[in-house]
Amino acid sequence: MSDRELEQIASMPRAFLDGLGVGLSLVDARTGRFLFVNQECCRILGFAEAQLTDGKITFRDLTHPEDRKRNDAEQHRLLTGEVSSFRIDKRYQSAEGNIVWADVTVRGIRDSKGALRWCSAAIVDITESKLVERQLIAARDVGGLSTWNFSVKTNSSDISGGYNALIGASAVGPAPSLETLLARVHPDDREAVASVVRKAITSGTGYVQEYRIVDESGRVRWLRGLATCIYDVAGNVTNLIGATVDITSRKDSCLQAVPSKMRNVLRYIEENWSKPLNVEEIATRNGVSNRSLYRFFKARGSTVSDHIRRLRLQHARRMLIEAKPGVTVTGISLKCGFANHGHFSKHYYAEFGELPSDTLRGGK
Questions:
Q1: Which of 49, 54, 303, 363 could pair with 321 as two cysteines, CB 3.0-4.6 Å apart?
Q2: Domain boundaries, the chain
């Protein structure tokens, strides 16, 4: 590259260079001083263009002191010709003193005689994802969560220690792909989990989902997963960052605390949720009195009718998420025992925070 070619780069339309959504810079390979920066680079580093290109600030000056040794080592490899480029996650200190995390790709550029003269750097702001990662790590340390970071583009994950064991895979195996994870999910829950993940990626929403997995020994365990989305500058979801915790013992303990006759009642309702049910029939079928049923559910802050309705709503949600083209909300509400569509929508919104029609669209 000649000095003339360098001038041509600097004279490229700013609307093009500033609209790429990635911080771009050109620096002197030996001194690290900025020769050119675009608008996104200025935003990430927190300096005006004139401040960065006046020759007083270098890339190393802005690099966080704790990351300079790693950065210097990579830069040395570039200068000696050991590598032609390198990629590093590192921290910058902005003009306001804030810490900015960036994914930086640096490439060496040689002049017409083959001498290394310049370095180009593409900088992507990853501060948000790093903050979420640290919050999840803190939550993991306090609450025993297993954390993960799923890359949408590469379909690969970074996982915390113990995550593989949590999902019933080999503890020393590689981080699971989405397909590997879904293969572990109980068949009855698999489509619902796949749908909430797809919805999160396409609509940029997080989720909280309880589901069962089947480990290598065939044992069924309950997990609760929660996730949030990370976006690029164009607003596209690049990563799902989340945490998963085993809630099997809580599920088991809740059930064991229930008297045996009432466990039979709950099981009976679970098995017959789609049929017409009333208190008298449930009591008679399970050898309990109406009064004892009333007291049992009251102690749980509910009623028999509320419990049945909530169970039907949960089944309706699963059907809406898994619905094939042509299925309607009205059809599902009727199948789940709701004769009044308006009442169904009202109860559904109160339970899940969205209308059934929204769930149906999101599950496609």
A1: 363
A2: 3-124, 129-251, 259-362
